[in-house]
Amino acid sequence: MNKISLLILAGGMGSRYKGQKQVDTISQKETLLEFALYDAIQSGVQKFVFIINSKFPKEYKSRLEKILTERKSEFYFLEQKTDNFIPNEFQLKLAKRKKPLGTAHAVLCAKEIINEPFITMNADDFYGKDSFESAVNFIRKTGNSDSKFGTVAFKLKNTLSENGTVSRGICKVENQLLKEVEEFVSIEKSGDEIKGLDKENLISKLNENDFVSMNFWILKPSFFSVIENEFYEFLVENEDLSQREFYLPSVIDKGIHEKKFEVEVHTTNEKWFGLTYPEDKSLVVREIEKLKSEGVYPKNLWNE
User: Where are the alpha helices (DSSP H) in 238-304?
Assistant: First the structure.
């Protein structure tokens, strides 16, 4: 079987969490990210690419390097800078920008490192072992096919935070194929209703059983040329680049509509959890300890 890479998006600034949530310990010395690494290794992933920011702690980087070296895994750490893959003609537009350019730009940063099928994930989200097993099985089935991508989608009701609003890509699915991803922000449950703001900033009522993208995409190397072309258009079309972000779901959505590829949707009823707000941590700790007590994970992930 071809080598499979896991691309970990760990370059976010954690403004709502008020800190480096990617390195916040949850159980023993383990972070939430390490449970994804464990699941990925168990599922057959051999290569790990971390997209990080300049403030990513050196001590934690060393810890990850040790864990992966001991398991004979290949790994890379790439810093997402605002000038990565930026043609000279656009450098001035980005001179005042402080934060990363978004999830799609983060993926583009790995273009020269990844030459095999790969899975993307957020470093601060928990996806569960079934998600990784589904992704690896899909790659085994489709190989390096340039036009067959995939995703694991969660039910909206299983991805809300009790501590504030969230942003989600609502997926329209037909015959197990993704037809559209529409980005909604400020999603929250109020009473029995779930509401969010669409791209026009209008309030929409959402269905709790809608499937949503959590940036768990199953992609092939051909995607890098798609994303590079879209990034150039993004730079051309946006005069003010001080705040605008280049989102991965938007690139996927456009590619589907232009029939550049198809995305097979693997749905899960698992409850997502993650670190969006500081108050989320206590729930995450409880959920992880519960999974350990049920034997899903060993008491100590790495036998330290």
Answer: 248-257, 280-293
* Tens-place pLDDT, residues 145-166: 889 999 999 999 999 988 899 9
Q: Which residue's entry shows tokens 């605002």?
A: 82
Q: How many CB atoms lie within 10 A of CB 122?
A: 22
Helix, strand, coil percentages, rounded to 5, for the chain:
30, 30, 40
pLDDT in tens, 162-185: 889 999 999 999 999 999 999 899
39 within a domain of the structure (yes/no)? yes
Is position 301 within any domain? Answer: no
Overall pTM > 0.90 = yes
Chain length of the chain: 304
Structural domains counted in the chain: 1
Those residues whose C-beta lies under 8 Å from the C-beta of residue 4, and which sit 6 or more positions away, are 44, 45, 46, 47, 116, 117, 118, 119, 136, 139
| Among candidate residues 169, 65, 157, the one with its CA nearest the CA of residue 120 | 169
Could you tell me the residue range of the domain that residue 101 belongs to?
Answer: 5-153+213-293
